[in-house]
Structures are given as C-alpha cells and as structure tokens.
C-alpha cells in the first residue's frame, strides 16, 4: 500500500497565492508515487476533503506540479515532482458566513426585521447557491443572527419572487413568529399575473401540496401532501392575461404557483409550471405586497405594504390599464 507523503514542511516562495483563506500544502512524490494519478496523491495530502472537491481545485488552477498548473486529475506523476495545492473550502463551508449586502429594510426593531426582498435573491443556502443568499446578508447585518437557527428566517420567498418577509432577530421572537405562522396568524397577500383570462371574480383552491414524485424540483397537488389553501381575487383580465390578488392560508413551497397552474393559469414566466415569458417579464410574476402580524414581544399589530419592482409594475399596468 502506498504511504501518504509528508506535507508538513512550510510553503516555499513566501506567502501563497490562492483564494480567500486557502491553506497551502506541498508534498514531494516519492518513488512509490511514480505513475500514480494526481488526484490520488491529493487525497493523501488532504484526506479531510472529498476526491471530487480536490478534483475541482485542479480545474480551478489551484494545484501545481513543479510550479506549473496541473492539467487534469488523471495526470500521472513522476518520482521527485513537487505538488502544491491551495486548499479552498467547499462551497457548503461558505454557506453560513456573513456577507455584507444591501438589504431593503421596511421595519426594524430589537426583535423583528421586515424586508422587501428583490427578485433573484435566494433566501437560504442550498445546492447551487451556497453563498450570496439572504441568510449570508442577515449574518452580516446584525450580530445576533449567528445565534439563531437559519439566522432568524421563519418563512421564505422563492428566488424569483419579490416582496415582503419578516425575520426574527431574537430567539423569543423567532419562537413566537414560528408559532404564529403555524397557527396561520401571519397574513400574507401577493400580486400575481397569470396566463389566461380568469373567469371567476373570486375563488379558492384548497388542495394539499407535496413534492412531485416525478421531479424533485417541483411541487404538486397530492392527496398525501400537506393542507394548502389559496384565496384568489381577479383584479383584471385582458388580452389573454389576468392580474390577481392571492391570499395564503398556509405557506407551502410554491403554493400559489402550483394552485394556479392546476387551474390552467400558470404564472407568467414561471417555466417550472408551464408559464412563458411575456409582458416584459423574464421571472415568475409573483410579488408579496402585503404582510401583517402581531409583534411577538410588543403585542401590537403591524401591517406593511411594498410596491412591486419596476418589471412587475409595468406588466401589472399592461393588464390592469383598461380595467
């Protein structure tokens, strides 16, 4: 069995290059490593990382052999060659780091924060979005976020949905808000623009929602899902589109998107559920415009409204102008 090399000697040539807080490790390929794959040696140098992550460091130019960038993970070594690697953490390891960002604060006190989230901002880290999320921004916004589960996030908006969110800043506030949401005491209303001219002035969709068994990225109406009800009011219908006001009585993932698509009225630009770009919108036509709840510590009722961003406002005007 090939022995692991000794990489404990200090880096040569002064301060290492590399990214962020990278740690540099170097090792010489002894005779026992002659003809072996480069990535196999890297696993021996840095056993705390997965081989796939170490291979990604090669692709990013962070591995050098005798000072030259390594070509591929499968590159064969020669005895005597020196291998240096800049050990940058995995994407997941950056998920809970503070990242300063501009937050549109609608209300803030010692216990709660109300934000107007822009479209395109991911709320919580997940595969493909391990940094640049609202959670990263909250960790930078106030010190107390680091002591709270999910930095105080008690409910979410989809990446491409804009509008109002409430975030807890203390554990008592988070506990109270979580319970209020479960008891359906946090009131949320959305503006939506869908394909098709909705016939009913007012209707409700009361159908359970669960993960689509055919696609892990979609939700679907399923008998085995969790209860979900959306009340819908038609504001205007014109030229093959409808402007709607939607009230949630539950907060399931993709709830409005799934409920409207089930009625044949997919949201404009919601490709996941059959909507096509239109009216100048390239993201799903959904905006959380109204939010109301009882302050978890002060006990007073708070109500907030947020005007939609320019892209949504222009599309909304196009549908409602003649109403």
Helix vs. strand class: alpha+beta
What is the C-alpha radius of gyration, as a whole number of Å? Answer: 26 Å
Unreliable stretches covering 5 or more consecutive residues: 1-20
Instruction: Kindly state the number of beta strands.
Output: 15
Report the end-to-end length measured between terminal Cα atoms.
78 Å
What is the average of the pLDDT values?
90
Shape: elongated
Helix and strand sequence? EHHEEEEEHEHEEEEEEHEEH
Specify the biggest β-sheet.
Answer: 9 strands, mixed
Q: Which strand-content bin applies to the residues?
A: 25-35%
Tally of separate helices: 6
What proportion of the residues is helical, as a percent range? 10-25%
Write a structural description.
This protein has six helices and 15 strands. By secondary structure, it is of the alpha+beta class. The strands form three sheets. Strands 5, 6, 7, 8, 9, 12, 13, 14 and 15 form a nine-stranded mixed sheet that branches. The protein has a four-stranded antiparallel sheet with strand order 1-4-2-3. Strands 10-11 form a two-stranded antiparallel ribbon. It starts with 22 loop residues before the first strand and ends with a helix. The N terminus is likely disordered.
